[in-house]
Amino acid sequence: MEESLLIQTTERYIKGELSTQEKIAFEELRNNNPEIDQLIVEQIYFLQTLNKLSDQKQLIHHTNETVAKLKSEGFITNKQPKISADIISIWNKYRKTVAVAASIAIVVSVTCASIISFFSSGKQNSIKPLVEKLKEQDVKYKKLEKQIGKLNQAAISNAPIEKPRLESKFRATGFMIDVANNYLVTNAHVIAEAKNHLIVENNKGEQYAAQAVYVNAEKDLAILKITDADFVKLAPTPFSIKKTNADLGESVFILGYPKQEIVYGEGYISAKNGFQMDTIFCQLSTIANEGNSGSPVLNKNGELVGVVSSMETNVEGVVYAIKSSNIFSAINEMKQTKENEDIKITSNPTLKKSDRVNQIKKVQDYVFMIKGD
Amino acid sequence: MNNLGFDKDLLEGLKLQDKNCIEKIYRQNFQMVQSLIINNRGSSDDAADIFQETMIVLYEKSINPNFELSCQLKTYIYSVARRLWLKKLQQQQRIGLQTDDFEQIIPVQDDVEDHQKQQDSFSIMEKAMAKIGEPCKSLLEAFYINKKQMQEIAQEFKYTNADNAKTQKYKCLVRLKKLFFAEYKY
To answer: Which domain holds residue A27?
Structure first.
């Protein structure tokens, strides 16, 4: 009852309907009661989302009308533009002739690009060449487009960095993100090693059975669930997961199991993209070793910014990590399925003001060895 | 040569969801986006979908007071559509775009990511709406989504008066909010 009264006031506040006196009282209430203020912050966000949703539906309605109108005028047709038909036939021709999966992409991409600039040379005149920076961007996209080459790359860079050791066949790292349901994050290539069984081991050497519930090979992300009933649930994770990309030069640290005990490493974000400009990954300058796959990468505030995935074999100190935003998309994907719909990132971030030693103390209980056979 | 002033007017119009402006943006840019999509293994329907989503991104930008178009509108639209289509292709089969770029492109990854986040919270809202049950769902949709007047709603839902409908509406709203944050909080 009380909240429905409050939300009514919040709504009037957003709409600017409160009288001066009401407004003063409302703001005083917020200033003096942090809990109520928190509630109002939520309410405002909620009401704004609802409002924006309505605006978007309205916009979709307008665009649908516009498309219908333009179709009836014959401005929008289902016919393919002539130019594109030529390109497609050329593309098909090449596809038939050259039949080597990975290398085709690069060949065709280069070939197609030059054909197009030929076809569209008339159009090009209207475009002013921009600054160098944009050209650089252009190169970046071109590289991105050669991602079919990633099939090759996957074979090179994602070669598992962990090797058989001890009782299990391999060892890697993973970390807890949902303490209510005991979900952990690690790499997809780690899971691929576990043909028979999968074990999660904490820093005290206690082992628990686990099961992969989500695997995305492209992003090299996997989510595991500890299935053992005797696993004692942990308190909410002390780190939050960053939705935005880490900044270039930001200092970071990793915790993982390159040996049978937890190992700490320091470094910094050295590039915003990964191997061959792969945008799923970022590049770190740090030392990682076999077993570090799946290690959490945290920044100085104790926010998780990435997951260690692989390292450059020719150059020392170049490590690739999956950007943390991919964890959110993985979770959203998982939520689509019935059995995982209650997955949620649970955290009570408390690391910001701690010094490094205390940050590590708090985080290490949430970092696990992933083993298996 | 300089279309920037003109583009600014179009954006202002889009912000108000002015139909003429929406139509103009379609007329000036649809063919370009359609060529891009069709050249890259998409259909006309895909092109329409991508263009619509691009319009949504553009709209989100237009209502942001800090947004300033730093290039031609055409360039911005092309870049966003391209990014969206690339994402779709990657989701489907890890294949990049094969052609381009006879149009200039600018980096729009952040804009597209913001858009994705917004869409995620919308889908949580719609899920919550689907869960809440009747009569709350219809009542809230009538008021918040379709923006009907309270008086009209009271009649439609056979409340004795607008005040009763209002009380009911706020009760429903609190429930919807709880459902929303049950999913949203991470």
So the answer is: 2-73
